[in-house]
Each structure stands twice: as structure tokens, then as C-alpha cells.
């Protein structure tokens, strides 16, 4: 049995899944001031009368880190930043104290100039005396050469700084500004997350349950609690990922698809490419901080069942982006799409008379009878989604390419199916089918999709290996590897090493190991020529344990 | 998050799967470190900087500019069509108002490609700026366009294409042709009878530094642009003037390129040469991008930069001052000079030798331009390659008068097939292209 739990804005949902079957579910209200209590109470209810020994694993999608960032309940952080030439690093100032160091590592990872350790000592002493303990260390191109970050960290450690986040450990991808922000966020949410992780761990131990606890990440994979406690920033914004993984759990999808989570105020849009969730190209943005955190592509628009409907000066119907209370059918004051769908008999709740009244208010402004008005609004609801989805697809399908081969042949996403979840999903599925001219499926148990998605998600991991045989260096920043190689190192060897490292890096936690989940996502090898001779190879390999499900939910929902 | 003061579109296409040969300067690795630097700097995250993929230039786009022998499909590889397509996309982004300015960081380059194309010269087969410029004119109307070629080599191909077109002001600053390929680009090469003075060459002495380049810009190029009043300014942005470039001898810098682009304020920049792929390109491209986006580039410096490295001698400073004043006076007196040279002439004839260094072909050309009072004049080129091919190319200019149009068609029709390997007619008035074997 596996437990999955999702923390939403209003509810905490939990499920137990075994062999593709949902065994039981539990639901509690979210107590925003004490998420641990909400989560633990939900789990306790779920675990009532269960054989605790048969539980293998628990996967939690929490909002602990996310809320800490958004609400600003954070540790003060000292940032140690080394940039070298380029954009003025003061543009990326964050945190409470920033120390700019004068060393420099270039694009190939060569040390051009050492940093002043005196300056680090001087500033460290000053900052720690002010009671600031959390620190982040970020150098430009640290993914190519982590030695400066490591050396600075070692100095800070002796002054009692903790946590100390090093940029290179968070992601092997390039982007100095994003590395700065990600490292800052990691240190700043550290305490909030650790308070939670200690509490949840103890709660399980006190109950006599000793199983792996995993936390869901924004890329739809999980991370064991021990690592999440060191890198809590990896757990931000996992909600949409839970929902996407949930959709995947209900259907056997191998084609391109549109995933819609249609709620009261918003509609979340994601995509599948050949059945695999599409990720954002660089990393997710939270509270205006662009990060290097891998994430499932998810765009939220202000359109839902309860969106307020108005008629503008031009006589056009405008739906959303704000919600102004419940639908009129539920005694609200503003007409909503739900009212229209109630009038059309597509939704069955509330007072239909009041819903008709809502349509009359809008219809009178446009000289249209209430039933016709309801149809128009229903149509417009579908039209808005279609318009947005098409513009997103256009953007996605024109993503930058760097080779002639990619320009001529790179895959374009062409959705063959829509999966919709959420309150109004069933009601709007007809108009979506009409607008998109592809089938739209709505799973039965969509209200627990997020918890199911969390339960069935797998451990994911990505590494970036770079080998420069002229410099004779190999670097795998995510694993803290920076070592010497000889000039016979090849692309084949790099791919082999990357796969071995992925397995090694996750083996202690990777209970669901499956060799098919490991893939090389990017590979290249450039001949480096100096003068008229080949002086080395510049080899780059990106490998991952891909996001996916350990199993699907069987039965009537299978499509 | 940084926000660009001027919206900038980037076509960044490093063509990582294309090279002339594994050890050639134009190899797969060329823009690798530039990409790394741009990604690490977070350039693509800057609000207002947007990436566009290249389109693929069509045969028709190429035939508006060139006479490819035997034809476009045989002579122009995909890589070059994409590079030209990258320039086209950059131009479209500006002219469709998707962005304010754009920079096409594409390869291979194009500014050594002349009107007639037998093969590859100076790593270029087709002239990507010219293909872009003619595309702009076709789609957006006949704009007045200034091309400022800041590559270290003379933009001899662009000069050839716009030699007799005064709607295109071509200014090339480069290392003196007596010391570098292609060996042309002297200040007395001023243009044909229809555009005399609208082709300006600024041959700079080896070891010219930041000071010299910026002097030329401030004291010659900017004043001329002020007078010419172009609708569009294009920087043919070669980066081989850099002090670390392995195939040239100049002392320009990333800071200098930044300043140059800030002052020149081009609407569109297109990468040309530049082969110091590690020590220069990552920093120059970063500097140009920031400058074009109106952002601070003052901290963009090469790792080994020192002001002494790029200072120039007093002698060079003096030489450049005199050069600028000579060239400016040519510009000022262009009409009088033209009058003297072309008055009462029916045709102006030039003979040229063009060497295709990459492909090892030698071409001999006779270019005959009609001196016409109603238009810039019909152009007739007879070309012979050392491979035994003979071509006739007839160009009816965009402003072609009825008489020149008729003469062009007449000549095309009446020239017997057997005399040439191929006969071409490029009718720029009607955007038509004909050829016969
Ligand atoms: Zn050049
Ligand atoms: Zn004429």
C-alpha cells in the first residue's frame, strides 16, 4: 500500500492505493496556520483500522515551502556572490546581506582569478555577529567548477553558518541569476520546512510506522524527506504536478494531450508530449523569483465556474479574471458561468430560478433571452480556453532550437485528447470537444486526482555531466563531482557514467527502480580546435530518471 | 528581474551540427561558448528580450540578390539558407513590431558573397544581409537602408551587390586591404554611376584600438547617417576586430563593441565573422545584446582585458583622423565627383577578379552599367570562371526606367544560348527572375 496526500488551499486529501486500486480516502479542511496538524490529522484518519505494516511508502505534496516563500515567513539569509565580468550582479540582489566577491571562473570552468578569502572572513564575522545564520554561496559557472563555492562554504562553516546552500548542488543548468534566487530561496525556507519535516517524521515514528517519506516536487517526481530537508526549495509548487500526475494515473495516455484543471476561479493548463508531462524550459518562477527548479509546465488563467461575468462598453461578454462570490444559483450576487451551465442543465446544483435570473441580468444588456445568453456564455467559456491553449501551443512549438536537424525535424505538440478535471469539467467537456474537435475525458474520481497523483509519483533526478578533455576536468554539479579525467574520455563513456551516477545517486531511496525510467535527454560532443589541431573534446550529457507513475489506477476509468 | 529598456529580438542559431571542416574556423564549436555565456548571464530571461527561430530562406529570396551557378538548389546548402532565414526572421520581428530591435546571431556569415556565386568565399556563399534587405524591400516597401559593416574584413560582397544602389548606403570599416583578405575596400571604391558616394570604405591600419574605432564612428559614420537619414540601420556585426582574433590584427574590445552599438543604435544587427570563439565572442555578443537592449554593459570585459592591450599609437590616431576627413569630403562632394567621372558616358565598365578562397575558384568579371538619366541604370555582367563556365547576368534595378527594362528583356531574349553556360535576368522592378541554359 502507498499513501498519497495533497495539500490544497481549502482541503487536505489523502488516499491509499494498492495494485492500481484506491483502497480508501480521507479529507480534512486545511488549517493554514498549522499545516502539519492538517496533514497529520488527515493521515491519522486515513490510517484508522489499517494494517500499518503493509504500508510501503508515503508521498506528500505539501505547501510548506511554497507558503514560506509567498508569506515571507523566512530566515534572514547572507548571500555570498562571485560574478566576474558580465551583467552587474547587483541586479540580482536578494536576501538580507549580500557580499560580492571578486573571483572569477570562466565559461569553461577555468579559474581566472581567485576570490579574496580575507573578504569572506571579514564579512562572515560581521554578519554572524548580527545573528544571521543562513547563508547561500553562488558563483558564476559553478556548475563547471564548484571549487570556489565549496571553498567559501568551508570558510562560512567555521563561523557557524547553517544552513549553507551552494548553488551548484541545486541544478546543473546554466543561469547565474536563477542560481542566485534558487540558492536564496533554499536557505530562506529551510527552517520552515525542517520544522515540518521533523514533526512529520516523529509523528510517523510515534505511531510505530517506519517507512520512506517522500515529498512531491514540481516536476511530478518525488524526493526523500532527508534530501528535501537539505534542499527544501526542491519542494515548491508541487500542487499542479500532483494534479497532472493524477490525470495520468486515470488514463493510459501515450499521445500528445491537453490537461485542464478547471476550478471555481482558475483553469490550469498543462500538456503531455507522447504521454509524458511537458516541463518548463528553465525552471519555475515563484513570487517573482525565477528559479532553476524543474517543473511541469502549468499556466493558470483566471477562468472558472465562479468567475464573474460582465458586459463591457463594447457590448462584449467578459468572463473573469476575478471571482466575486459564489454563483447566483447559490445566492451569490454576480452572474457566473456556473449559472449558465445550471440553466443549460449541464450542472445540477443550486436554485435554477436564480441562475435564470443571472442570465437575464446579462441578457437584458444585450437583448438576448436568458436561455440564449446561457448558451453564449457556455460557448465563450470554451472559446477562451481554446484561444489560450492555442497561443500556448504556438509558443511551446516555437521553442528555441540550436541545430539544423532540430529546426527541420523537431517535434511539435499536436494534442489528440483533452483530460479535464475539477468541478465544472464534466459540464464543459462538450463545448471543449466542439471547440478543439478532439475527445475530452473526465475521470470519475477527479476530486482525489491530486492525492492519487502524489501517491503514484516516482523518485526523479536529473544530472548534468560536462567533460572538457582539454582542461581534463569532469563536472557533475548536482552530485558535487569535480574531478580529473584524461584526454581519452569520450561521449560514450560520459553517457555510461551519467547513467551509473543517476543510479548511485538515488539507490538508497529508490524503491521503485526501473531501468526504463533512466534516459539520456541531451548529449553532445564538440571537437575543440586550437590553431589547426584538435585539442580536446567538450562533452555534455544530461540524464534523468524521468517523471512517471509506478502504476495506473485500473477499472472503469481506463481509457 | 532585469527589464530591457528597448525590446530586443534575438535569433540565436549556433548551427551546432554544421561546419566547413572539423578544424575550420567556421566549425560547430564556434558559438558554443557564446551560448554558455548568454545562458549563464540569464539573457533569455530578461524581460523584453525575446528569442525567435530562423525561417528558411527560399530560392526566390536568394534569386532577388544572387546569380547562383548552376542554381540555388545545387549551390546553396541548408545551413546557409537557414543563416539567411535567421537574418530575415530578425528583420521581420522588427518590421512587424514584434520587437524594437533585433540581433541575428547566426552562422555561417555572408558579407563576402557577391552577386554572382560560383562557390564559397571567405566562408560565405550567399550574402545574408542582402537577402534580408531585399526581403524587407519586397515585403515592407522600398526602404532607405544603411548597412554598417563592422567586420574586420572588407564587406566586398555587400559592396558588389549595392555598388549602384543609392537606397542602400554601405559603409565598411575594416583592416586595410593591403594587409588582409579580401584585399579590397579602399576609399576610392565609391560606387557606380547610379550611386556614387553611397559606398564608403574605411580601411583602418592594423592595431587600431577602441579609440580609433570610436573616432570613426563619432566623426564619420554618425554624421553621414545624420545626413543620409535611413529608414533602417543594419550593423553587419563581425567580431573579428577583437584583440584576440586569430586571423586579424586589430585591437577592438567587448566594451568597444558595446559602445559602438549603443551609439550606432542599429535596428538590426547580424553576426558576420569573429573567430576568437572563447576569448572574444562570448563577451562581445553579451556586450552587443546589452547595448542594443539599452542595458548596462559596463561590467562586460574579457578576462584578460587591460587598457594597455588595446591602446593605439599616436601615429595610428593621426592616420585615422586624416582618413576620416578624406572620406567625409568624398561623401560631401559625391555629386560633383560623379559628374566629373560619368558625364557624357553611355556605359561605365569595370573589370574584376574574384577569388573564391574556400573553393579555390578564380572568376573574371566585366561589369557594364548604363549611365541613365531616368534610373540608376541597367547592369550587365559577363563572368568567366577558371572552371570554364561563362555567365551573363542582366540586372534591372528597382528604380528601372521603361527604357532600361526593355533593354534588359531585349538583351535576355536575343542573347543566344550557346554563347554562355547560363544567362540570367533579374528584374527588380517586377520581382522576376529568369534564367536559361
Ligand atoms: Zn571577417
Ligand atoms: Zn534607365
TrEMBL record, chain A:
Domain of life: Bacteria
Domain Hydantoinase A/oxoprolinase: residue ranges: 179-460
Coiled coil: none
Gene Ontology terms: cellular component: cytosol
One Gene Ontology biological process: glutathione metabolic process
Family annotation (SUPFAM superfamilies): Actin-like ATPase domain
Domain Hydantoinase/oxoprolinase N-terminal: residue ranges: 3-159
GO MF annotations, alphabetized: 5-oxoprolinase (ATP-hydrolyzing) activity
Protein name, entry field: Methylhydantoinase
Organism, as annotated: Thermohalobacter berrensis
Lineage, opening ranks: Bacteria, Bacillati, Bacillota, Tissierellia, Tissierellales
TrEMBL record, chain B:
Alphabetical list of InterPro entries matching this protein: HDACs, His_deacetylse_dom, His_deacetylse_dom_sf, Ureohydrolase_dom_sf
Organism: Thermohalobacter berrensis
Lineage of origin: Bacteria, Bacillati, Bacillota, Tissierellia, Tissierellales
Domain Histone deacetylase: 74-278
GO molecular function: histone deacetylase activity
Family: Belongs to the histone deacetylase family.
GO biological processes: epigenetic regulation of gene expression
Gene3D superfamilies, sorted: Histone deacetylase domain
CDD domains: HDAC_classII
Protein name as annotated: Histone deacetylase
Domain of life: Bacteria
